[in-house]
Every structure is written in structure tokens, then in C-alpha cells.
Design goal:
By secondary structure, the protein is of the alpha/beta class. It has two domains: 145 residues, 3-Layer(aba) Sandwich (Rossmann fold), CATH 3.40.50.2000; 152 residues, Glycogen Phosphorylase B (Rossmann fold), CATH 3.40.50. The chain is built from eleven helices and twelve strands. It is elongated, with a radius of gyration of 21 Å.
Length: 310
């Protein structure tokens, strides 16, 4: 029986980018024992996927030698293949340990891999595409339309249709990517005037970003501090439109494959994170803070994005 170790850390968005690759690895090797090395905060979410037989916690200890010791122990567990989906400076050291002290075939875009994918310069390739190309080195074809039903929960008694999902928050260290909360409220009011219910999601820390919407709109479903990934995905499935910054919860919502407006800084990071597609509507500026409410409303009207669907 094949034994595989997958490595993936990073932000919530990074985990979501890697889901199609993770699902494809399981699809390629349905009988294999597949282990995941990741952070503790993602264990609950990824266990629900049933992709992995076991999840090993690596919180990327600041005491780096402790992490290296843990990886050394892992290298003795005789994995047939190690697939590095994190592709960071840190995991390049992990790869070296696996090469020196184990017999695993290592696939990565970092040094010391047996099979190394060379990533183009940032912005020329979406993250999901890069991971797919990396897996091609192992003859693993990434599923273009993976099944995310394991994320779905019943929201029929809570979510009124038609609705628009708004995700106004951002993590503290990413405030440069945040659109003005007052402008989010302007768009929410506009959508409400078109007879759409507004739904807001986010963590407790996102309440300040959502307050303008909560104060200005009359019919808001407030899921702040009660919107884990399963809830965000399930609401997005029922939403005619999703409007957001470049943030982890938005990438969860994108799995529903409904129309999304992304409000973005025009840079290589945005282009790598969000590929342009039929469903991904990117409104970009040198600074996201320069995008006006009027510009977004005109884009919605021009592209007829407030269509009601069953």
C-alpha cells in the first residue's frame, strides 16, 4: 500500500488554493495511506474532507530546531512520496531532511526535491495552476471540478433568497488589501434597493468592518462570529453574488462557483491569488482604497450580476 505525506501550511486562503490538489491526490491513490502535515487550526476543517487518513500537527514552531527534529522523526516513517504543497523556504529544509535521512521521493518547487517544479515569476501563474502543474510531475491530473459537498450544511431556514453575500473584513496584517467598509455599506444598500437580502460573514474581529452595513441596511442576516468555513460555503451556494476583499473567507466562498466581485490591489499577488474567469469579476486599482462605490455599482449593472436564480 502506497504511503504519502502531503505538506501544507499557510493562511486559510493557501489551504483553500490547495484543496483541488489534495482532492486529486486522493483520487489518484484511493487505497493509499495519505498523511497531511499542517497547522492545528486546520485539522477540524480538513478532517471533514476525508482526504487524509491522518493529520500530523506542525505549528511551525519558532524554535526551528524543534520542527526539524519532528521532521527527522517523520523521515524515518518510510513514506513512498512526500508532496510539498507549501513550497516555502522552511519546507525546502524539510525536503533536505527527507532526502538525507529517508528514502521518500520528494516533489516540490523548492530545492532538494527529486521532482522539482519551477514556478514562473509571481503573477504569471495562479497559485492553483502552479500546484496543478507541480502534481503533473507525478502524473496526477488535477480535477477541474472537485466535489465540495463535505463542506455543505443545511442553511434553508436561515438564509433568505435572493441574497448577496458581503465579506468586508480582512486579517490585521492585510489591512492594505481592505476596501473601505463604508463603501461596502453603499453597495449593500444598493443591492437591498434591488430587493436582495444582505448576508454578512466574518470573525469577531471583523465586526468593526461590518458595522456600517449593519447600521445602514434594513434587512441583514448577520453571521459575524458564527460563520465557520462550512457556513460561508453553504451561504455562497445560495447567493446570487458575493462581494469581498482578497481574504480567506472569500476563497472559501469562491468554491461555490457563483459570481464574485473581488476588490483588489492591482499587483502580482492579486493576480496569483485570483485568476480572471467567467465567475471571478476583478475590480482592481493601484490601491484598492481608490475604488469608488459608483465604479462597483456600474460594474454590477453593466455585467447584470444581480440576477435571481433558483
Amino acid at each position: 500500500m502506497k504511503k504519502i505525506l502531503v505538506i501544507k501550511h499557510g493562511s486559510l486562503g493557501d489551504i483553500i488554493f490547495a484543496l483541488p490538489s489534495m482532492i486529486s491526490i486522493r483520487k489518484k491513490y484511493p487505497e493509499a495511506l495519505i498523511y497531511l502535515l499542517t497547522e492545528e487550526k486546520y485539522v477540524s476543517l480538513l478532517m471533514k474532507s476525508k482526504i487524509f487518513d491522518k493529520i500530523i500537527i506542525d505549528n511551525r514552531n519558532l524554535f526551528f530546531l524543534k520542527s526539524i527534529l519532528d521532521v527527522f522523526i517523520l523521515s524515518r516513517m518510510r513514506y513512498d512520496t512526500v508532496i510539498d504543497l507549501q513550497n516555502s523556504k522552511r519546507t525546502s529544509i524539510y525536503n533536505l531532511v527527507f532526502r538525507l535521512f529517508g528514502k521518500s521521493l520528494v516533489c516540490s518547487s523548492r530545492p532538494f526535491a527529486h521532482l522539482r517544479y519551477k514556478i514562473p515569476s509571481q503573477g504569471k501563474e495562479a497559485v492553483r495552476v502552479g500546484l496543478s502543474n507541480q502534481l503533473n510531475l507525478l502524473n496526477i491530473i488535477t480535477d477541474e471540478d472537485p466535489n465540495y459537498n463535505w463542506l455543505k450544511v443545511d442553511m434553508k431556514d436561515e438564509i433568505t433568497q435572493p441574497n448577496v453575500l458581503v465579506i468586508p473584513g480582512i486579517s490585521k496584517n492585510s489591512e492594505y488589501k481592505q476596501w473601505d467598509p463604508e463603501r461596502f455599506a453603499d453597495i449593500a444598500q444598493y443591492c437591498e434597493s434591488k430587493k436582495f437580502t444582505i448576508c454578512v460573514v466574518g470573525t469577531k474581529q471583523d465586526l468593526s468592518s461590518a458595522e456600517a452595513i449593519l447600521n445602514k441596511c434594513n434587512n441583514v442576516i448577520n453571521k459575524i462570529d458564527s460563520s465557520p468555513p462550512e457556513v460561508i460555503y453553504s451561504i455562497a451556494l445560495k447567493s446570487s453574488l458575493v462581494i469581498s476583499n482578497d481574504t480567506g473567507p472569500a476563497h472559501i466562498a469562491s468554491l461555490a462557483n457563483n459570481n464574485m466581485i473581488w476588490l483588489l490591489n492591482d499587483n502580482n499577488v492579486s493576480k496569483a491569488n485570483i485568476n480572471k474567469s467567467k465567475r471571478n469579476h476583478r475590480i482592481m486599482s493601484t490601491s484598492v482604497k481608490d475604488i469608488s462605490s459608483k465604479e462597483v455599482i456600474e460594474y454590477i449593472e453593466k455585467n447584470e450580476l444581480l440576477k435571481i436564480f433558483n
